[in-house]
Amino acid sequence: MSPILSLRRYNHEHLAHSHEHAQLVLGLSGRLDFEIGGRGSLVTCQTLAVVPRETHHACASPQGSHCLVLDLEDEDDLLQTLGLHADAGRRLLERPGPVRLSPNQEQLVGWLAGSPLQDPVIARQGAILLLASLAADCERTAEAAQLPLASLDSYIDRHSGHPLQVADLARLTGLSSARFHARFLAETGQTPMDYVRSRRLHHALEMLRGTHLPVGEIAARVGYASQSAFTAALVREFGATPREVRREARDNSR
Fold first, then answer.
1. First to last CA, the chain
2. pLDDT number for residue 142
């Protein structure tokens, strides 16, 4: 296993590869040009690059650069030590690209770079402290923004025939499941799962009115395993069975 923290110098030599673990590359001096998963990125003394696991990346530094590299070969164990910040830490490591460091984080990176990184205790505890700080910033940024309802709607529609959990939607927002549930309820007046169910049933209503698809197929397309369960849900939501919906649509079209 590689050291969890290491100091590395980069030059004009073009490096390109991928690895099975996530990696953070934190700038100390110079400029390191990165391409991560086809997206450009830049590492300087105020930024870091997130390289998710198994993501192809390439880098070079024509003028030379010095970086602190965090290799997360034991990612799951490290994330478990973050407590309430674990989910945010996981989301941080899943998103390729640059992250800007706060002044306090810059000081922490500088302190780590000057520490005896060959000491496994110092290296591991320093990595945990850095991850916790970055994860907490991700949470604060997500808290400050409104929920991306258009993106959530698009995700729900793309997965209309498959089970969805609150965690699936929360992951898109950078919030923990519990915080996402509370924010969603406050902003929409519905729980996330009530919202998903209602949106799917409205989609089903449109298909009943506008297509000749069999009821069982429509039920499957909006995530119901049986036609009877779909009918019961439709009656609860709209007070009408699929047959009644279609009869009303025919009558209105005459």
1. 73
2. 67
**Same CATH topology for 5-144 and 147-254?**
no
Bridge partners (DSSP) of residue 48 are: 26, 99
**Spatial separation of the C-alpha atoms in residues 205 and 209, rounded to whole Å:** 6
CATH number, domain 147-254, options 1.20.120.530, 1.10.10.60, 3.30.70.260, 3.20.20.100: 1.10.10.60
At 212, list the tokens.
């000749």
Give me the residue spans of the domains in the chain. 5-144, 147-254
Bridge partners for 26 per DSSP: 48, 68
Closest to 61 in 3D by CA, of 94, 83, 31:
31
Beta bridge partners of 23: 51, 71
Question: Is pLDDT of 144 > 70?
Answer: no
CATH of region 5-144: 2.60.120.10
DSSP state of 146: P
Residues 6+ apart with CB under 8 A from 99: 47, 48, 49, 50, 92, 134
Q: 151: which 2 tokens?
A: 């993106």
pLDDT digits (tens, 9 = 90+) for 150-195: 999 999 999 999 999 999 998 888 778 888 899 899 889 999 999 9
CA 124 to chain centre: 25
- pLDDT for residue 171: 85
Strands (E), 53-185: 57-60, 65-72, 97-100
The answer to which of 4-18, 53-67, 85-99, 137-151 has the lowest mean pLDDT is 137-151
- Whether 84 has a pLDDT exceeding 90, the answer reads no
**Percentage above 70 pLDDT, the chain:** 98
